[in-house]
């Protein structure tokens, strides 16, 4: 999965939207000028197509921007949570005699030699 930094999203997506806007407005103005024979006939279908195209590109860019921003936020939050867990484990390991982690069924998630020593048991006796 590609995760773009938020700064890139803030620069590239508005630039693409601006480019799409200029492109569609240029096409719309070209349709207003008329054909090369000099007639000033306005083709409403061309103008309508340009406006629909611009609207579609704008909506898609907003959707992509929101999705990418959410992906970046989720990844940053996940990294932050992992760092906090690592810091908490480090503090507990330094201040406590034994640290254990339980799984969803309240069994030891990993062997704890320090707990086994504290309880004067052999480490295999403390499995799950």
Q: In terms of topology, how is this protein built?
A:
Blueprint: H1 6-33, H2 44-95, H3 113-118
Helix pairs in contact: 1-2
**What's the helix count?**
3
How many angstroms separate the termini? 36 Å
- What's the mean pLDDT score? 75
Radius of gyration: 31 Å
Structural class: mainly alpha
Portion of residues in beta strands equals: under 5%
Order of SSEs, N→C?
Answer: HHH
Low-confidence parts, pLDDT < 50 over ≥5 residues? none
Largest sheet: none
What is the tally of beta strands? Answer: 0
Shape: rod-shaped
Helix amount: 55-70%
Which oligomeric state applies? Answer: single chain
Description:
The structure is a single chain. With 128 residues, the chain is mainly α. It has helices at residues 6-33, 44-95, 113-118. The mean pLDDT is 75. The protein contains 3 helices and no strands. Helix 1 (6-33) runs antiparallel to helix 2 (44-95). 67% of the residues lie in helices and 0% in strands. Keywords: Membrane, Transmembrane, Transmembrane helix. The chain crosses the membrane at residues 12-32, 52-73.
Defining key terms:
membrane; 3 helices; 128 residues; single chain; transmembrane helix; mainly alpha; transmembrane
């Amino acid at each position: 999965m590609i995760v773009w930094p938020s700064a890139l999203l803030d620069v590239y997506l508005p630039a693409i939207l601006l480019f799409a806007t200029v492109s569609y407005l240029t096409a719309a103005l070209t349709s207003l000028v008329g054909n090369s024979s000099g007639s000033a006939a306005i083709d409403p279908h061309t103008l309508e197509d340009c406006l629909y195209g611009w609207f579609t590109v704008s909506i898609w860019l907003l959707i992509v921007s929101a999705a990418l921003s959410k992906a970046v936020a989720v990844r940053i939050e996940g990294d932050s949570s992992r760092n906090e867990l690592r810091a908490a484990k480090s503090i507990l390991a330094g201040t406590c005699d034994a640290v254990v982690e339980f799984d969803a069924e309240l069994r030891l998630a990993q062997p704890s030699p320090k707990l086994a020593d504290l309880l004067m048991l052999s480490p295999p006796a403390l499995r799950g």
